[in-house]
Amino acid sequence: MNKNRVCSHTGGRARKKLDKRAVIPHNGAMSNYFYNLISREERLALPFVSTTNKMLARSFFQFADRVALRDGERVYTYQQLAEVLANKRHTLYSAGVRKGDTVGVLLRPSLEQAVWVLAVLSAGATLVTFPSMTDEAHLLAGVRKFEMRLLVSSKDYPFAREAAPLYLDVLAKSEGSAPMAKQRGRDRAVIIFTGGTTGDPKGAVLSHHALMRGALNGIFVPHGEQTVFATALPFSHVLGLVRSLLTPLFMGAENYISNPFALLRDCSKARPTIMVLVPGLADVLLAAAGRTPAVLGDRLECILCGGAPVPRRISEGFEGIGVHMYTGYGMTESANSISAGLTPLLNNNSVGRLYPKQRLRFRNGEIQLKGDNLFEGYYRDKEATKKSFTRGGWFRTGDVGYMDKDGHLHITGRIKNIILLPNGENIYPEEIEESFNENPSVRDCMACEDTVNGEPVIALEILPAAVMADKTLEELYAIYSSMIDRFNRSQPSTKKIGKLKIRTEDFERSISMKIKR
């Protein structure tokens, strides 16, 4: 059977170009928007620090007896975690790692992976965490590109032993402990993959200062003293590393380490109050919770959801079972933190307000940024780095959007995804996709340029939701064609959809569950 069912229809609409010349700074009102979410005592107890090790040292001292990390079998208090990391650092130093070396970690999502990630960071090395599905070719490419000194891995990856100059098994131990390395805020902390791991890998270099700004921003959500995270996102992704690992440690929270495939099962053990998710994973949990809300652990208060646009039906679904969903906007190059929205249902098309210590401007609709959370550039790629910044040092996000009168940021699309019609009109596919993703019969969709009888049209590729599993292709075609007809009746001729494709397999996705276009 073909992967897609292709049918015809007719399509596009122009979006007016937006060019607001003003620079939108962080200011007192924006500061208070976030700072007022936590108590004055907590603000004083959790000041900004510029390095990972300063953050860890403070947390080990302030929260020594609290649980830091755990899984289904092990529990580490902050004091115990400090001791474990001291031993891991000794193991790294004994293997030949020195401050400034690049060290890779290739492991399955686990408590061990979290510990080794923290050990490498606290040893003063530059961390590269490989996605767990990395194969031999992409591992070798990454080791070469990022000039890796040592690789920490396991028997799950038999090809890893010969990949780097030095290899360290995940179970390796040494007798002794070593102190945390001296760090400065501008020291290189991590290299994070961007654009997936296909082809020649590209890595964004983030300093300790940028990581800590992102981690601090993560605490600006309503929470109580007994905050428990359930972490399932990969640490090779900036949302997983910063918001799911560093932020809980920054605030002295408890963190249950799981993985995307076991999260639903682990919720009853973790009993989280907060989870950080991408929309695809949130959708899975919502489907399960709709049948039995208790499967989420009976204490879940809020979900931080990012990495891709969040359909309103997901926000409404969680609100319906008493779980608040907060949305946001971030990128690898910004240490994940650009903006956050605490009322997505009131401002559904918004990604919230700008986080502190940033400035934002629009040029031809493109969002451009300055701030202390930004990356230093792409590793050994001067040309790509140069293209990512203006002459004045503004980072080009590649996202198009606008700011409303209430200070809420709206994203309308990606420049690279624009569909350029023969009449010169620009179409942002994300605007079309949003209309269909709200429908519970659609799991996901993608709008793109295609042809019918040699004429260019807008095509919509739909992945049916699980509730449509009992429908035949003919029934699906009839249902989705009717949806398209209703959509087209409300659109100008330039934005009408002219072709329907129905998928019988999922889209190819990135590590953050985004569709690869």
A few lines on this structure:
By secondary structure, this protein is of the alpha/beta class.
Task: Describe the protein's architecture and organization.
There is one protein chain. With 517 residues, this protein is of the alpha/beta class. The chain folds into two domains: 4-16 and 417-503, ANL, C-terminal domain (GMP Synthetase, Chain A, domain 3); 27-356, Rossmann fold, CATH 3.40.50.12780. The chain contains 14 helices and 27 strands. The strands form six sheets. Strands 4-3-12-11-13-14-15-16-17 form a nine-stranded mixed beta sheet, sandwiched between helices. It has a five-stranded antiparallel beta sheet with strand order 2-18-19-21-22. α4 (78-94) packs across α5 (111-122) and α7 (208-217) packs across α8 (238-250). The longest helix has 17 residues, at 78-94. Mean pLDDT is 89; it is low at 1-19.
Q: Provide the low-confidence segments as ranges.
A: 1-19
Q: How confident overall, as mean pLDDT?
A: 89
How many individual helices? Answer: 14
Largest sheet: 9 strands, mixed
Helix fraction bin: 25-40%
**CATH T-level topology of the largest domain:** Rossmann fold
Strand tally: 27
- Largest sheet, order of strands side by side? 4-3-12-11-13-14-15-16-17
Q: Please report which band the strand proportion falls in: under 5%, 5-15%, 15-25%, 25-35%, 35-45% or over 45%.
A: 25-35%
Q: What would CATH call the homologous superfamily of the largest domain?
A: ANL, N-terminal domain
Shape: globular
Q: What distance separates the N and C termini?
A: 22 Å
Structural class by helix and strand composition: alpha/beta
CATH architecture of the largest domain: 3-Layer(aba) Sandwich
Give the C-level CATH assignment of the largest domain. Answer: Alpha Beta
When the domains are counted, the total is 2
- Rg computed from alpha carbons, rounded to a whole number of angstroms: 23 Å
